[in-house]
Design goal:
heterotetramer; A alpha/beta (444); B alpha/beta (290); C alpha/beta (374); D alpha/beta (255); A: 444 residues; 4-stranded parallel beta sheet; 10 strands; globular; D: 255 residues; alpha/beta; Nucleotidyltransferase, domain 5; 5-stranded mixed beta sheet; 8 helices
């Protein structure tokens, strides 16, 4: 077989900055109280722009990314999950939740010291586990819990009443936060935060859209450490600024034909969170010239997309870009509600057919050769409907491979079986290992 | 292909009180524990252990019960008809032909443990072939709360039996051998007993010694059991019944995990169930049961 | 008369087909117990709840991954095996994501004339859920009107509400008898009564209930009722399990499950606005844990039931992988035990080997019986 | 020239020697602790049977879970590919290959050239692999090879309610203690296994042009259950099911 073309590659300049932002984030949270600031915890999908109205010293720690960081430390991850098991919780519950609880029960903060107790929990309910997660956490920590129900059906069926239902709850939550913190709520700060949120999430969608290029400027393994910033605090200006910088760098990579994977000759996407402790399976696929250009998960968890003039998928236009001037609290809440309800990764909760449609769109627009679905035992929320997605993709003629695993519980991932499964899938795609790629990896 | 020698079984034996004359006794009570792997029959005379047997369970439990009681009665001059009250327990408890009543092994193990290790015992761990029970009891050996492993046998005696068979090592030696390693290896991850076999083979193929494999299994099992115990709450004065108590490879590692020592007893931990059943029989006799 | 319910339970599909022949009416499959049946009954339709059959099956593997609850797979299997081929429509009111898969796979692979998803509020504890859900119930009514081409008048609604309420009242009355020292019903029999009300014509069902209520005062169980137990937890109509539990010296006197009391416990309270009355009824009913937050409002209700029915112990029935219940049970267990109700937790699959369960149940009963052995 | 195929399985190692599309010799040994050594032994046996010397072998291709452990192999192929190649070589019309091994079972969809189009693997579930029958045989105290014939004597069909192999073992023991006939239990065991296998096969689609390979295909009790479950009367089982993958491996050279 002829040796495939080798594209030029370069390290991502923004990389260290992303790392730095993450570390600072957890430091700030842990030390917030020392500086008289406010701490809240909850889900990465919480309306994080809303608490911003409480002041500039409001710090958040979202549960999922925190648990994911722990997942890389298999030993501590296991200790946390054992601590949760020991309290009688079922082993098949969300593994992020079990890790977060464990860290809380053990009173051990992954980034050093005791587990920082939040002033309140703030969450959205779309996955069955979300409300239960913070219900337990708030009872254990004896702090208030505000939960916004966003189960109002897919965005394409959104009505005025459905939007109002969410907005009214957001209003209530602000009153609650004022009571809890004894602070006066500042609508100007909310408005700014909503603008930032839309900017950050639209920018990420734009960056993902740049990955339509061949060769792909980014591979999913890299994207994992980039998309995460939006899960931390998408409504902060810093994060938006970072994505702007990143967008420009990725644009430049596309212009100069810089690839993420040197021997790219087969493009795929995966699905749901990967088994964090075993990202090497992505490196293994690279040996065959396979690049994962992302997933509905990396794209749509925190990227807000919209149809472009030409009907293709791209960043949704932000209120700023549309010249909308937000004046009141209510306007701000309506915009953030509508914006979040359009989140791609929320749609499949109602119907797998919607997700299949989005995936097929990605298959075509990102020019893919196949899809790998992670049947993630650690997250029923993102795995829900996966089997129907598989059938839908196969029906449309897309080669699909599935593997079972767990994003954060290594007991449920089998490395040997998964690798040999990938190898078989490569055979069905007619791909063999590229000596050059193997050697390069061995060297690095 | 099937190994002829069954390394995984404990050896059978019987015991008899050296000088007791049962004919002097007022109450003769018996307890029969028909477990999935082994069966015990135990006879109490006026509340004192007179004789017992510890045999393997055949796949035909009524016979297991008969064989066990016959073995216990052998050369004692006592016959089944002399038993005034008999309680059956264990998986085959409802199939003990000559039993007056059946009581679960959970109640019996707690009662037996209370007799064997004293009234201060609050937590009893029974690791049988099929399941693992964490029992909390009061000063009379009355069960106040209990937990059993759900649909997973990792952490039951079976795991060890599989290893013994696979490595052709008598089960009684496993514990000691598991300590003959330079350093404690990583516990194995496999949670399914059925896959433990291939996992062990894989480890051996990658150059692990038999002892290392044993060490890895003992610590994995000790860890799983400690989680179960954690859920019921381990109090001081904690006692282990069942064959597993004879495996220091697990017991010592478990004690390390829990940070407390298990109470030791001069009795064979495998008779706890039959003993408890016998004690219940004796109580019922005193209460005038027929 | 009591036997009638078991007969219905066993022959539910034959019943449905006959109902269709005789009435020429439409049968709507309901997913979970949050569908406002008043609307369907007002439109003279037969609501039939989609349930499993507790038999081993091998047909759902391609559609629902094995990490989701056995109930949602067992239920889909019934559809894929063609047992519900008489359905004209299917409706789901938002409950858990597990069962939504059953509904969606059904829509994809078993097309029916009418399918509707009600985005019912999940946070039933917020006051805003009321005005919102009223609109959704109204939308549902409109959809039904469009489908049948007949308007649903206020009189129709009143009729629907009354038929449902009557059935609920009667079931409550039957449950009342279970408070007696020697309940005239076994838990198994009560389970058949409650479950069948979820797929048998409500009026027909109510008529038999009334007849049974006349019989009950004379009725005696052929055995000592033994320990009084409560069954609490996930969907479970596993008759074999109840049989076993009641064969080892106990009687289930009350339940808190969607196959039982949760389904019929409260009524629609008619006020001027009928749709609001219907909507509120479903927001105010004893909730499935998936809708029970921020507060655990359910816990006190469970304890009250245990006390009113003098349950001596509670069996917490946990459907494997049922996250909402798994998210409640450890705290519920603690709550009950702190209030003097011992509990036994069991993990259920669609089919269960009774041997291992039996040991646990017997041991549990021994701990409750207490002194006789000491 | 001679092409050797070695299937390095979890329990046994199978070797096949082929020459111009014909099978010259076969051998099978227990895997043991040293798969490489056992493989060598099996290879020697096969050469002896064929009256050939080591030099006569042109290529050695391995498959099976230990396929990477054989240093002297000239290459290796994945289990699905080997199974598909071997099955289509022996039975050209086959489009679905069902491979039930001791530890893993697989359903493979392939084309006329033996190219794998889609496949499903029974993930880490003992209840869907040969290990299940093995564990149950032990609980029943019946030699593994007698399980199948025994189950054919069943007089009634009882469902295997346990979903997991280990829980099933307790169930079997409970059944024994409730005096259920061993034959009926054995049938329940095979029904349980086949329903799991069929559930997996449905993931790639159930095509009547199928063949059962792997050691378990020898078990008449399983095959009967399988027929009942899929509702196909003439289910094709390979004549020497355990060698199909080794044949496929031998043929993989140059493909």
């Amino acid at each position: 077989m002829a040796t495939p073309t080798k594209y030029p590659t370069e390290a991502l300049k923004c990389w260290p900055k992303a790392k730095e932002l993450r570390q600072q984030y957890y430091k700030d949270y842990a030390s917030a109280h020392d500086r008289g600031g406010i701490r809240w915890s909850g889900g990465a999908w919480a309306f994080d722009a809303v608490p911003m109205g409480l002041g500039d010293d409001v710090h958040v720690m979202t549960g999922e990314p925190y648990a994911a960081s722990i997942a890389f430390d298999r030993k501590f991850a296991q200790e946390c999950q054992d601590a949760t098991d020991a309290r009688g919780w079922a082993r098949d519950l969300c593994s992020y939740m079990r890790i977060y609880w464990g860290s809380m029960y053990l009173n051990r903060f992954f980034f050093g010291g005791e587990f920082p107790k939040p002033d309140f929990y703030y969450q959205t309910q779309i996955c069955c586990s979300h409300a239960k997660w913070d219900q337990e956490a708030s009872l254990y920590e004896k702090v208030p819990f505000y939960c916004i129900d966003v189960c109002v059906g897919p965005y394409e069926t959104l009505t005025e009443e459905r939007l109002n239902y969410v907005v009214k709850q957001l209003h209530d939550s602000i009153e609650g936060m004022e009571k809890t913190t004894g602070r006066k709520y500042d609508d100007e700060k909310l408005i700014a935060a909503v603008h930032n949120e839309c900017r950050s999430t639209s920018l990420w969608a734009e960056i993902c859209t740049l990955n339509k290029a061949i060769p792909a400027p980014l591979d999913e393994k890299t994207m994992f450490s980039l998309y995460v910033l939006n899960t931390l605090q998408r409504s902060s200006k810093q994060i938006g600024d970072f994505y702007e910088e990143l967008r420009d760098e990725v644009k430049d990579r596309v212009a100069r034909g810089i690839a993420a994977v040197p021997y790219e000759r087969c493009r795929i996407i995966t699905d749901t969170q990967p088994p964090w402790g075993f990202l090497k399976i992505y490196r293994y696929m690279e040996q065959f010239g396979v690049v994962s250009v992302g997933s509905l998960y990396t794209f749509g968890l925190e990227g807000i997309f919209g149809e472009q003039e030409d009907g293709s998928w791209g960043p949704r236009k932000t209120p700023q870009q549309l010249g909308i001037k937000i004046k009141t609290r209510d306007e701000a809440l309506r915009i953030t509600a509508d914006w979040n309800l359009s989140r791609p990764q929320w749609q499949h909760f109602y119907d797998p057919a919607i997700k299949t449609r989005m995936m097929l769109r990605i298959v075509n627009e990102w020019k893919l050769n196949g899809v790998i679905l992670h049947l993630n035992r650690g997250c029923e929320g993102l795995t829900v409907g996966s089997s129907e997605n598989r059938l839908g993709l196969i029906k449309a003629g897309v080669p699909v491979m599935t593997y079972e695993g767990n994003m954060a519980d290594e007991k449920e991932f089998d490395e040997r079986r998964t690798t040999s499964r990938i190898e078989s899938f490569m055979e069905t795609l007619g791909l063999e290992q590229i000596p050059g790629a193997v050697a390069a990896q061995a060297a690095s | 292909m099937a190994e002829l020698q069954e390394y995984w079984r404990w050896t059978e034996y019987t015991w008899r009180h050296p000088e007791m004359d049962w004919r002097q006794g007022k109450r003769i009570a018996a307890g029969i524990d028909v477990g999935s792997v082994s069966s015990q029959a135990l006879i109490l005379v006026d509340g004192e252990i007179f004789a017992f047997s510890n045999l393997r369970t055949g796949s035909n439990s009524p016979d297991s019960a008969n064989n066990a009681i016959k073995a216990a009665l052998k050369d004692t001059g006592m016959e089944i008809k002399d038993l005034q009250y008999t309680v059956g327990t264990g998986y085959g408890r409802v199939n003990v032909p000559f039993a007056n009543r059946a009581i679960t092994e959970i109640a019996c193990h707690a009662r037996g443990a209370n007799f064997m290790a004293g009234p201060k015992v609050r937590t009893v761990l029974d690791m049988g072939g099929q399941d693992c029970k964490a029992i909390h009891c009061d000063e009379r050996g009355k069960v106040t709360n209990f937990l059993m492993n759900d649909k997973c046998a990792a952490g039951t005696g079976r795991g060890m039996e599989v290893m013994a068979d696979l490595l052709s090592i008598p089960i009684k030696d496993i514990g000691d051998l598991s300590f003959q390693v330079d350093e404690e290896p990583q516990p194995v991850s496999s949670t399914c007993v059925v896959f433990a076999k291939s996992e062990a083979l894989g480890l051996m193929r990658s150059g692990w010694s038999k002892n290392m494999v044993l060490a890895a299994y003992c610590s994995a099992m000790a860890h799983r059991v400690s989680l179960l115990l954690g859920r019921i709450g381990v109090e001081d004065q904690f006692f282990i019944t069942g064959g597993i108590a004879k495996n220091p490879g697990i017991v010592k590692r478990l004690e390390q995990e829990l940070g407390i020592q298990a109470v030791k007893s001069q009795h064979d931990s495998q008779i706890a169930g039959a003993l408890g059943a016998g004690l219940f029989a004796d109580t019922l006799l005193q209460k005038g049961a027929q | 008369m009591v036997e009638k319910f078991k007969e219905w339970y066993v022959n539910r599909h034959t019943y449905a087909k006959q109902w269709k022949e005789q009435t020429g009416g439409k049968i709507i499959g309901t997913f979970c117990t949050y569908v406002p049946e008043e609307i369907l009954v007002a439109a003279k339709m037969l609501p039939a709840r989609i349930l499993g059959s507790h038999e081993p099956q091998d047909v759902t593997e391609p559609h629902i991954f094995g990490m989701f609850c056995p109930f949602c797979r067992d239920a889909l299997a019934q559809g894929l095996k063609g047992r519900f081929n008489y359905l004209d429509g299917v409706v789901l009111a938002h409950s858990c994501i597990h069962f939504r898969q059953t509904f969606n796979s059904w829509r994809i692979h078993l097309p029916v004339e009418f399918s509707y998803y009600i985005p019912m509020p999940n946070t039933v504890q917020t006051p805003h859920a009321r005005s919102y859900h009223r609109v959704e119930v109204e939308n549902f009514k409109k959809a039904i009107e469009e489908y049948t081409g007949r308007p649903i008048t206020e009189q129709h609604l009143d009729r629907g509400i009354e038929i449902l309420n009557r059935n609920r009242r009667l079931l409550r009355k039957v449950y009342e008898c279970r408070k007696l020292d020697n309940p005239p019903l076994t838990g198994e029999e009560a389970m058949y009564m409650a479950v069948t009300s979820q797929f048998i014509d409500k009026e027909e069902h109510s008529n038999v209930l009334e007849a049974v209520l006349k019989e009950l005062p004379e009725r005696k169980l052929p055995r000592d009722s033994g320990i009084r137990l409560m069954a609490v937890g996930s969907e479970n109509d596993d008759a074999e399990f109840f049989k076993m539990v009641e064969s080892v010296g106990s009687t289930v006197v009350i339940d808190e499950q969607c196959a039982g009391s949760r389904y019929f416990w409260n009524e629609s309270v008619p006020n001027g606005d009928r749709l609001a009355a219907i909507a509120n009824r479903y927001l105010d009913r004893p909730p499935c844990p998936v809708k029970d937050y921020p507060a655990h409002s359910r816990f006190q209700h469970v304890l009250n039931l245990a006390k009113d029915y003098r349950a001596q112990g509670a069996i917490i029935m946990q459907e494997k992988f049922c996250d909402p219940h798994e998210g409640d049970n450890p705290r519920l267990k603690k709550f009950l035990e702190e209030n003097g109700i011992p509990t036994l937790s069991l993990e259920f699959d669609s089919t269960n080997p009774l041997g291992p369960f039996r040991i646990r149940v017997e041991a549990f009963l021994e701990t409750i019986r207490g002194e006789e052995l000491f | 020239m001679i092409k050797a195929g070695i299937d390095v399985g979890a329990k046994t190692i199978k070797v096949v020697l082929m020459e111009d599309g014909k099978i010259r010799a076969k051998a099978k040994v227990l895997s043991g602790f040293d798969q490489e050594e056992s493989a060598k032994e099996a290879l020697e046996q096969a050469l002896k049977e064929a009256g050939l010397s080591r030099e006569a072998i042109g290529s050695i291709v391995t498959t099976g879970n230990g396929r990477k452990a054989i240093s002297y192999a000239s290459g290796d192929v994945t289990e699905p590919r080997a199974a598909a190649l071997g099955a289509v070589f022996l039975y050209p019309s086959v489009r679905t290959v069902i491979d039930i091994g001791a530890e893993e079972s697989r359903a493979i969809k392939c084309d006329s050239s033996g190219k794998v189009l889609d496949f499903a693997v029974n993930e880490k579930c003992a209840a869907g692999s040969g290990a299940f029958t093995e564990a149950m045989a032990r609980a029943l105290e019946v030699p593994l090879e007698e399980m199948g014939p025994l189950s054919l004597k069943a007089t009634q069909s009882i469902p295997m309610n346990a979903q997991c192999a280990v829980f099933a073992e307790s169930e079997v023991i409970s059944l024994i203690h409730s005096k259920t006939q061993k034959a009926d239990i054995a049938r329940a065991v095979h029904d349980g296994l086949s329903s799991r296998v069929v559930a997996m096969v449905r993931r790639v689609g159930l095509d009547p042009e199928l063949v059962l390979i792997g050691g378990v295909a020898h078990n008449p009790g399983f095959v009967e259950s399988f027929k009942r479950t899929v509702g196909i009367d003439d289910v094709r089982t390979a004549e020497e099911p355990e060698f199909v993958s080794a044949i496929g491996a031998a043929l993989a050279v140059g493909k």
